TrEMBL record:
This protein's record includes keyword Oxidoreductase: yes
Keyword terms of this UniProt record: Monooxygenase, Oxidoreductase
UniProt protein name: FAD-binding domain-containing protein
Pfam families: FAD_binding_3 (PF01494)
A GO molecular-function annotation: monooxygenase activity
Coiled-coil annotated residue ranges, if any: none
Keyword check for Ribosomal protein: no
Chain ranges of the FAD-binding domain: 10-338
Annotated InterPro entries: FAD-bd (IPR002938), FAD-dep_Monooxygenase_BioMet (IPR050493), FAD/NAD-bd_sf (IPR036188)
The organism of origin for this protein: Ditylum brightwellii
Superkingdom of the source species: Eukaryota
């Protein structure tokens, strides 16, 4: 499928927060339009919380410029402010706010649901990337492809990149309404933002966030474990039932799970998989300077550098990816030393490849440093070690953003 004007099509795979933000940002660059592809057929109310840190908010403010800045205003209005200048939001509300922003760009963004990518052709002698799907006859062609399809990225496999590796951690996520008529947990709403304190029991960590009164009655929770999980048998109840010694506390935790949808309690939201940015990993790549993209294909967010769920930087680094990607493409439209690189010149395989490699190399050092920090802190927490806060210097550097 070709677009019907002179705009170059960017194909974005994955309509989570990273893909939606990328679509909004790319659609505002003169000369580009976006085909946004999502495997799921619907946008479900799922997940727990999204921690939009100061650096992520800064990146989104840059991405959503002009009329799209309303997205940022809505997030600020609906989120719970944090001491370091960030926001806490229910995951699905973050996603839905970005989705609304993308839909308002309907002249520049086409959203296609329920399409499962099965092949990518990126030939040097072809002016475009060709994408096909296992469950649709639609064939998309675009100037470049951005993979934002998460930790289980299909695009990674199609690119023959080193596979993601299991960390041994499994995560369950859920939420409840403590103001529901039959709820036994209204008392949690008076316990502050972190009503359960965040505790680890023999390799299993539980953490809850209280959004009341900003979001009346809403409490979200996350359970992460390094214990073996048998799908269809292991639940958050079986992980914790013999670990919590305080009877009153266990009663509260039980009620938290009982009042959640059963699927949240029994089915892991994510089996965390990441690529560790080790020297061995980079030596396995064909080219230096990036994290695995090649030709006119690149990855952002969890598809490129999934992070442990420690300090909530995964989503924020995805937004930074988008901000830097859009800067890089905008820079290609302006005088950069020798010549201008308008969208039409991105039809050249080598030119497009060099621009995307510049994006990856620009991001790499910062992403590696934050990724390594999150990995070490998460591993310590799962060993039951006391993990203190960031140093002031490191915190300021992270939150300063890009």
């Amino acid at each position: 499928m070709e677009n019907d004007d002179n705009r170059r099509v960017v194909i974005v795979i994955g309509a989570g927060p990273a893909g939606l933000a990328a679509s909004i940002g790319l659609a505002q660059i003169p000369g580009y339009s976006v085909e946004l592809i999502e495997k799921r057929t619907t946008f479900e109310k799922r997940g727990a919380s999204f921690g939009l840190a100061k650096n992520g908010l800064k990146a989104l403010s840059e991405i959503c410029s002009g009329e799209s800045y309303e997205v940022v205003n809505q997030l600020k209005e609906g989120g719970v402010s944090t001491p370091n200048g960030g926001l806490l939001l229910p995951w699905w509300e973050m996603r839905d706010t970005l989705l609304e922003g993308a839909r308002k760009e309907q002249s520049n963004i086409t959203i296609r649901m329920g399409m499962d990518i099965c092949s990518i052709e990126d030939e040097k002698d072809d002016s475009q990337v060709t994408v096909r799907f296992s469950n649709s006859d639609v064939v998309l062609r675009g100037t470049m492809l951005i993979a934002a399809d998460g930790v289980h990225s299909s695009v990674r496999g199609l690119m023959n990149l080193p596979p993601s590796v299991k960390t041994g951690s499994t995560v369950f996520r859920g939420h409840i309404n403590a103001l529901a008529p039959d709820s036994k947990l209204v008392e949690l709403l008076d316990r502050g933002m972190v009503p359960l304190g965040g505790k680890t029991y023999d390799g299993t960590h539980i953490f809850a966030l209280n959004y009341h009164p900003k979001r009346p009655g809403l409490v979200t929770w996350v359970v992460g474990t390094s214990k073996p999980v048998i799908y269809g048998k292991t639940t958050v109840r079986t992980l914790l039932e013999n670990q919590v010694e305080d009877a009153e506390e266990w009663k509260i935790i039980q009620s938290l799970f009982d009042e959640s949808e059963e699927e949240m309690v029994t089915t892991p939201s994510t089996e965390t998989r990441v690529v560790d940015f080790s020297d061995e990993y980079f030596s396995s790549l064909d080219d230096d300077g990036g994290w695995g993209g090649s030709g006119r294909l690149t990855l952002i967010g969890d598809a490129a550098h999934a992070m442990r769920p420690t300090d909530g930087q995964g989503g924020n680094q995805a937004f930074e990816d988008v901000a830097v990607l859009c800067r890089t493409l905008r820079g290609a439209l302006t005088s950069d030393g020798d010549e201008l690189v308008p969208p039409s010149k991105m039809d050249d395989w080598q030119t497009c490849s060099e621009v995307l490699k510049k994006f990856e190399s620009t991001r790499l050092d910062r992403v590696r440093r934050i990724h390594d920090d999150q990995r070490m802190r998460y591993e310590g927490r799962m060993r039951g070690e006391k993990v203190g806060p960031w140093s002031d210097e490191f915190r300021d550097w992270v939150l300063q953003g890009v």
